[in-house]
Amino acid sequence: MEPSHRRTARCLVAHESLFGNTRLVAEAVAAGIEDGGIDTRVADVRDPRTGHPGPGTDLVVLAAPTHAFSLSRPDSRSDALRRGATGTPERGLREWLCRWLEEGGPTRPCVAVLDTRVTRVRRLPGASGRIARLLRAQGYRVLDEPTTFLVRDVEGPLVDGEVERAREWGHRLAEELTPAGAGPAGTRT
Fold it and tell me: What is the CA radius of gyration of the chain?
């Protein structure tokens, strides 16, 4: 029998986190994806060194805080900084995503989208739904439904159980990306 030359699937979990809550969720999702045998990297999009997914990336998970029912903007990030957040107002997931879509590329990895939002607005629109619609319109395959993780207040903390739920969601994404007997992105080997 010949040895298998199947490569390991690769994932980028790109997040924007002003108070640390979205980062905690992104890291838990990444851990769940890694549990599924997928090589996973977590990156803060506010770091100018964070590039876009390269060739060979099978899944990109986008994690955003919800600001005014959508992605953060420089003015909403400035407001968060006045409340004690870290970072700068100039760069967030909105800007990173726009550059990624403008640059395009020969391949389109699968994507998954999550947001964090305050419990009192849990039923209102958030960032994840808007991102998913944009990506679908650009021809990307969105795995699973956009998912929301809850924080108690703007600054946090996360609602009890959300980190564990995020890791379980990561498990589901890994299973959907590489079903039993399949290679990266579900291609049969």
Answer: 16
